[in-house]
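Need tokens for this chain, all 309 residues.
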Amino acid sequence: MGVSPDGVVVLDKPRGPTSHDMVDVVRRVLRTRRVGHTGTLDPMATGVLPVCVGQATRLAQFLAESEKSYRAEARLGFATSTDDLAGDPLGERCDGQVAIERLREALAELVGPLDQVPPAFSAKRVDGVRAYERARTGEAVRVPSSRVTVHRLELVRHEADRFEFDVVCSAGTYVRSLARDIGTKLGVGAHLVALRRTESGGFGVEDAISPERLASEGEGALIPLPLLLSEWPAVTVPDSLLSWVANGRVLPLEALAFRGELTDRVRLCDERGAVLGLARRTGAHSIGGPLPRTEGLHPFVVFAPAGQS
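Here are the structure tokens for all 309 residues:
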């Protein structure tokens, strides 16, 4: 199969396929098995889906931690079993007509930290079993709430029983649940009918490409390792300490080069700009001799040299 490419493909997922289907597309096009996405999009959803390839799969959890942005459309008048248009209607239907002022108030009440209940048809585990697996058997599933944060929730359009809204939220937030809870607050029920993710992992729709474009560009569509997690400070490690990185030894700050302020997590680079891995700041450590102690960086993700992944 040859040397695995390293980097991220930012796909513009079409409506219909699953996120796992998109991973399979990347595997086939790039001819590698080492592929994983950074956060599931439902089959009905479209938009930004970063897919990690090769050594970049070790960054997936950090890319997944980032805030997400969405443009969503919901219908008022009834809730559904899945909180979207794929589910069965729950309860009596109504016309869903509400005043725009009431709708704006309902959205405003969901901004900030929330204890959100995920949909019954979701990948959340309940007693070790995926919630959707229990729900498909007809079991009444109550998924435990999760702490999430909605940073922004703004009405874009409201017409009859439909409304569009923009969301900026923490990882783990279900926009389907937001639509459901808006309907509950209004007393008319609601469910999601369309969803497009506009930002994830630090990538926006302007970075995303179609599966067809990936097929034509191949490895040329990869965003390379040095451009990932660019919001993390870059620290240059001298050649004399490269073996320390490879062995996971704490690096003394006074031996490293960096600009500006360091955060708790940084990228480690060699003198030529190649990314060596990721490191955390440590409070104090011994660097040999009679216990001199200093602040340092502890590598916790180390990449293999180019061509050895």
